[in-house]
């Protein structure tokens, strides 16, 4: 059980950070005005990391088993059912986010209540480390490669649970 947990943490942490990094740069290249804002004001980086996680979360869905009968939106979900939590959809919920389809690096980190790291007892153990890794890597590239640009249209990895690119070709 200990080995399985360690493997899960290593894989989850690595996959999530790698895919958020590539997906994030792809998002920034497709929103040049937002990239320009971030390049001109590094203080926006913490909020931008949260927005990148919200806008194109690397983990699109997670499955859970229902432990007790529960009612959600008038529908009873019985104990023992498997449910899929659609993080990508929840992160675009108009009841939670103003202009959810808009990517905005100025969206305040404190009010960006995305669920990319899960919630409750299933909240991601590595969330603080992921945020640190993302802020550091994006900050470093913004500072050290200010003219970095996309060279080729990326291709997506197959699958729908983990959303990520096979590669992101850039020129510095």
Nutshell version of this structure?
The chain is an alpha+beta fold and 172 residues long. Helix content is 41%, strand content 12%. It has one domain: Cytochrome P450 (Cytochrome p450), CATH 1.10.630.10.
Description:
The protein has one domain (2-171): Orthogonal Bundle (Cytochrome p450). With 172 residues, the protein is of the alpha+beta class. The protein has a two-stranded antiparallel sheet with strand order 1-4. The chain has a two-stranded antiparallel ribbon with strand order 2-3. Strands 5-6 form a two-stranded antiparallel sheet. Helix 1 (2-30) crosses helix 3. It has helices spanning 2-30, 32-40, 45-55, 87-90, 127-144; strands at 61-65, 70-72, 75-77, 82-86, 149-150, 170-171. It has five helices and six strands. Strand 2 and strand 3 form a beta hairpin. The longest helix is centred in the first third of the chain and has 29 residues, at 2-30.
């Amino acid at each position: 059980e200990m080995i399985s947990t360690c493997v899960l943490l290593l894989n989850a942490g690595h996959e999530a950070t790698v895919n958020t990094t590539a997906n994030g740069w792809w998002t920034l290249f497709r929103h040049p005005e937002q990239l320009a804002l971030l390049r001109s004001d590094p203080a926006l980086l913490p909020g931008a990391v949260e927005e990148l996680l919200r806008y194109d979360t690397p983990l699109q869905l997670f499955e859970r088993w229902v432990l007790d009968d529960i009612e959600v939106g008038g529908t009873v979900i019985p104990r023992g059912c498997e449910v899929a939590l659609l993080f990508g959809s929840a992160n675009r919920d108009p009841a939670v986010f103003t202009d959810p389809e808009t990517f905005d690096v100025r969206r305040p980190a404190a009010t960006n209540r995305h669920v990319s790291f899960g919630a409750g007892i299933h909240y991601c153990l590595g969330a603080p480390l992921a945020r640190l890794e993302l802020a550091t890597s994006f900050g470093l590239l913004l500072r050290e490669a200010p003219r970095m640009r996309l060279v080729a249209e990326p291709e997506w990895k197959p699958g729908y649970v983990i959303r990520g690119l096979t590669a992101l070709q850039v020129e510095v």
